[in-house]
Design goal:
Shape: globular
Strand order of the largest sheet: 1-7-6-5-4-2-3
Radius of gyration: 27 Å
Number of helices: 18
CATH architecture of one domain: 3-Layer(aba) Sandwich
Strand content: 5-15%
């Protein structure tokens, strides 16, 4: 008879001479410890993150702390509502359907009134991003196409096959721009967030098919927050990799260390939203091939300008399907594709990936149901307007407009580098220029620029602001005025104490200093609430 293995001998010695209840207790405790360890290892959040949240949750339960927080939150909520009340002063607030419908002229007049409410003159080129061109002829072609197709729905392919053709052509044209082969495929979505969400869904389901039950995505800290949003919706874990503080690009070796058996996707930005720098997509592609994990390139912001930069005489690193490790891409047609708001494309190297994006229900009494994206019914008018824009602009004009935008971007960058008191973050890859200061509060500068009519994007960790240059900034004198105003604001901040930062920029500054990030989340939720707030007669104007 063979001798028992050493591990079994050790276990027998451990339980030797013990009472049955002790053996049961020890066994149950061991099993529970293993289950706990397994759940700890496979949880979506890190142990540090969960302990931090638990600590602040406990702290907020202390009556005195809870009372102070509630008082401050109520004050913040009142301030948000007061801002809305002030902004809507003098307008008719409608809470019920009109008994008799307004005339077409009355409706148009109210629409025009609503368009004048903002604090910025967005048609003059003073807004960062948001409005990517001011061409009336491009707008007319797009809106005419929309008006003809506003009530179409590509979900009903047999009823509106022409809309499906338009969508397929938009996808094919985009795939060719980013050097995809004949297998490259994708869909049109409602924007960059949905494109990113669809890519995350596709590779989550691909991971499921490989037996990974709790997938994670590995993202740079500068990756768009849409990845975190996708993770919240889809139940994904997120491993965030810090970026180099000089280049503002992700450290590829840190990405390597972050890849594990649960990794279903790694991400690179081309460029990222905060700083406009481009991650080393070539190195990430090599990493994706080495570890057999998909790489998603987020080109939502700058993809439709980067694609035309080489032809326009502005070099840009290779970031697309020419790199064999790139499995998917996202790029917004409603940004530098100049289409109306509400379209983007998500592209895949092969149909297998796109199949994982689809949602199919086979047992519904209403029949077999399948849809390619989040929406069931989709706005055929937006697809048609996007298609019409791309058809009307054409490659040659895209190249020309790209050159005009990049020339202004490079002018602004060069001028800002000579402004005393500020510095540029990293190397801008396309059209975003981010700057900060070691000499003064950069948010104070942003406030001064706001008073001069400029709407810029605030950044945190570290503090900064950026301008996303669009074709609206190519209007005569706009770039020169921006540079002049930055110089003046910087000089003001350097010369004298300008007092505390106020308004929105003050919130950004304070938010960075709050250790309990759930409080920042609550403040943000109140701000979103205010977007839906309608003042009442009791509100003081």
């Amino acid at each position: 008879m063979s001798e028992r293995p050493q591990p079994l001998k050790a276990i027998n010695r451990l339980f030797e001479g013990r009472e049955p209840w002790q053996i049961v207790t020890m066994t149950a405790s061991s099993v529970l410890a293993l289950v706990w360890a397994h759940s700890l290892y496979n949880a979506q959040e890190s142990v540090t993150s969960r302990l931090r949240k638990e600590f602040f949750r406990w702290l907020r339960s202390v009556p005195f702390v809870r009372r102070k927080i509630d008082e401050k939150m109520a004050e913040i909520n009142r301030d948000f509502r007061a801002d809305v009340t002030k902004r809507l002063a003098g307008l008719t607030i409608r809470r019920q359907l009109p008994e008799k419908g307004l005339t077409a002229e009355e409706v148009a007049e109210e629409v025009r009134d609503h368009l004048t409410l903002g604090a910025y003159d967005w048609k003059s080129g003073t807004v960062s991003g948001a409005v990517y061109h001011l061409s009336e002829e491009i707008a007319k072609v797009a809106t005419d196409a929309y008006s003809l197709t506003a009530y179409t729905n590509p979900l009903h392919a047999d009823v509106f096959p022409g809309i499906n053709k338009m969508e397929a052509e938009v996808v094919r044209m985009a795939a060719n721009l980013f050097h995809g082969d004949d297998e490259c495929c994708g869909t049109v979505t409602t924007g960059g967030t949905e494109s990113i969400m669809m890519a995350c869904k596709a590779f989550r389901d691909l991971a499921y098919s490989k037996g990974i039950t709790n997938p994670q995505i590995v993202v740079p800290s500068t990756a768009h927050s849409a990845f975190d949003k996708a993770a919240q919706y889809l139940g994904l874990g997120v491993v965030t990799v810090k970026v180099d503080q000089k280049t503002m690009t992700v450290n590829v070796e840190d990405v390597r260390k972050a890849i594990g058996r649960r990794t279903c996707l790694i991400v690179g930005s081309a460029p990222n939203f905060p700083y406009g720098t481009m991650d080393d997509i070539n190195a990430l592609s090599n990493l994706a091939l080495e570890y057999d994990v998909p790489l998603h390139v987020d080109a939502c912001l700058g993809g439709f300008v980067a694609a035309f930069m080489p032809d326009a005489g502005h070099p840009v690193p290779v970031f697309d399907f020419r790199l064999p490790g790139v499995a998917s891409m996202s790029a917004d047609t409603h940004k530098y594709g100049f289409a109306p708001k509400g379209t983007s494309v998500v592209l895949y190297r092969k149909p297998e990936y796109r199949h994982c994006q689809y949602t199919v229900t086979t047992e519904w009494p209403g029949g077999v149901y399948g849809s390619p994206t989040v929406n069931g019914s989709r706005a055929g008018g937006l697809i048609a307007a996007c298609w019409a824009t791309m058809m009307f602009v054409g490659r040659a004009r895209y190249v020309t407009m790209t050159d005009e935008i990049l020339r202004v971007t490079k002018y602004i960058e060069a001028e800002l580098r000579s402004v005393e008191g500020i510095f540029i973050f990293g190397k801008p890859a396309t059209t975003v220029i981010a700057f900060g200061s070691d000499k003064f509060d950069i948010f104070k500068m942003a406030e001064l620029l706001h008073k001069k009519g400029w709407s810029l994007n605030a950044l945190q960790f570290p503090s900064g602001i950026h301008i996303c240059v669009t074709h609206a900034h190519t209007q005569a004198g706009v770039a020169e005025r921006f540079v002049s105003d930055v110089r003046e604001a910087a000089n003001t901040c350097l010369q004298a104490s300008t007092g505390p930062v106020e308004g929105k920029m003050a919130i950004y500054g304070v938010a960075q200093e709050i250790s309990d990030r759930s409080l920042v989340s609550d403040i943000t939720k109140y701000f979103i609430d205010s977007m839906y707030y309608l003042p009442t007669a009791e509100d003081k104007l």
